[in-house]
Amino acid sequence: MDQLVQSGLSSIEVFSYSAQLFITLRFIQAGKPQQNGCIEQYNRTMRYDCLGQRYLIIYTYHCY
């Protein structure tokens, strides 16, 4: 999957690749992160545990 992200594939190519692997892509509504609670909690945990407070502040500043 890292190769997909690094190569900058188009959405059509990602859909095609996922279909070859029998992966079903599911999307949430824009602006509704609570529909994806498990992943949002995992992302938050990883930010706190792996990045540390210093890097989290920098990350948050640059993303928002």
Automatic annotation (TrEMBL):
SUPFAM superfamilies: Ribonuclease H-like. This is Integrase. One of its GO terms (molecular function) is nucleic acid binding. Pfam families: rve_3. Transmembrane segments: none annotated. It comes from the Bacteria. One of its GO terms (biological process) is DNA integration. Residues 23-53 form the Integrase catalytic domain.
